[in-house]
Amino acid sequence: MAVPRMASLQPFYLLDPATLTMPPEQAADKTGAYEVACRVGVEGMRPIDVAICGSVAVN
Q: Which residues contact 48 (CB under 8 A, 6 or more apart)?
C-alpha cells in the first residue's frame, strides 16, 4: 500500500499476510501499517495481482 504523501525513496508499505501480527483489516489502516509493515521502494515491490482505487465521483 502507498505511504501517505509518498515523499520518500521507499513510498510503499509491504503487508505480507503471513507475517501480520494483527488482523488484516487493522493492518490495512495507515496507523496499523505503520506499526507492522516494512517500507519498500519500487525495486522491492512484488508483482501486483489487483489494484483497488477509491474515488469520490464516477461518471
A: none
H-type alpha helices, the chain: 24-27, 30-36
Which residues neighbour 26 within 8 Å (Cβ) at sequence distance 6 or greater?
32
Contact 27, 36 (CB under 8 A): yes
Residue 27 burial (CB count, 10 A): 22
pTM of the model: 0.63
What pLDDT, in 10s, does the model give residues 20-58? 999 999 998 888 988 998 889 988 888 888 887 777 776
Q: Which grid cell sits at 50?
A: 489487483
Of 39, 43, 14, residue with least CA distance to 27: 14
